[in-house]
Design brief:
Elements lengths: L2 E2 L12 E5 L5 E2 L3 H12 L7 H12 L5 H9 L2 H20 L4 E2 L3 H10 L3 E5 L4 H11 L7 E3 L13 H10 L8 E5 L2 H10 L3 E5 L6 H6 L4 E3 L5 H4 L10
Parallel strand pairs: 2-5, 2-7, 5-6, 7-8, 8-9
Antiparallel strand pairs: 1-9, 3-4
């Protein structure tokens, strides 16, 4: 069920560009982020079961959606340590992906195809590095699903909660001349903050990932959806891509 939380001067069916998060929104990874974090933490001497590990894991959970290298900078203090942790994290996550432990969120591909059939441009974005994003896309067979995929390095290195990924999607696709005609969907509070800061008129939280309704609404969600499968209807698009 769709819950509309704020009003907007732009009608939802005026949207021309849709920026979708991946893990937790269009992609179900079954908690692989935490498994990969464990590998990175152990590499830097943080053992599971210790108070230090519990504190760092709580921070990882709270910052889901943020650029991973940024999270590791916060956790480990120095650039060198953050880069070491991030390299181990990305390698571990990529190996888990290659092991077949990711799948599309039910209805995600159909939603993307319906939006594109209706003439909207869809971009997939992530807080992971490019190599990990490409591994996920390959595992799902999504390499050609959308015209553009973005990671923080594609937006000057700043991921969420900054607006850069959303604005990079607008600039690189040329899909619209107004930020008010952009819709953003994600499963974390940082996705919501990024969309709001970019000026998107639809910032939809989905309940298939890291954060719950209260966290999403507190971060500025204009709508809360059960999953991304509900997004086409919200934007006035039917399952076959026709206007509703």
């Amino acid at each position: 069920m769709v819950r509309e939380l704020t009003s907007s001067a732009t009608k939802q069916n005026d949207i021309e560009l849709v920026v979708l998060d991946m893990a937790g929104t269009t992609v179900a990874d079954g908690g692989l982020v935490e498994q990969a974090f464990d590998a990175a933490a152990r590499h830097l001497g943080v053992e599971p079961g210790t108070p230090d590990h519990a504190e760092k894991l709580a921070h990882v959970r709270a910052t889901m959606g943020e650029s991973k290298i940024s999270v590791f900078r916060q956790l480990f203090g120095t650039e060198e340590a953050a880069r070491r942790a991030n390299a181990v994290f990305e390698k571990a996550y990529g190996e888990l992906v290659d092991g077949g432990l990711v799948a599309p969120v039910p209805g995600a591909r159909k939603a993307v195809e319906a939006l594109q059939a209706a003439g909207l441009t869809v971009v997939l974005s992530t807080g992971f590095a490019r190599v990990t994003q490409d591994a996920i896309l390959a595992a799902l067979g999504w390499q050609d699903l959308v015209p553009l995929t973005l990671c923080p390095a594609d937006a000057g290195g700043r991921g969420r909660p900054y607006p850069d990924l959303v604005l990079a999607a607008l600039l690189r696709t040329g899909a619209t001349d107004a930020v008010q005609r952009v819709a953003v969907a994600g499963d974390t509070s940082y996705d919501m903050l990024s969309g709001r800061r970019a000026g998107a008129s639809v910032v939809a939280g989905v309940l298939t990932g890291a954060h719950d309704k209260d966290q999403l609404t507190a971060a500025g969600a204009t709508h809360v959806l059960g999953s991304v499968a509900e997004l086409p209807a919200l934007l006035g698009v039917t399952g076959d891509g026709r206007p509703a």
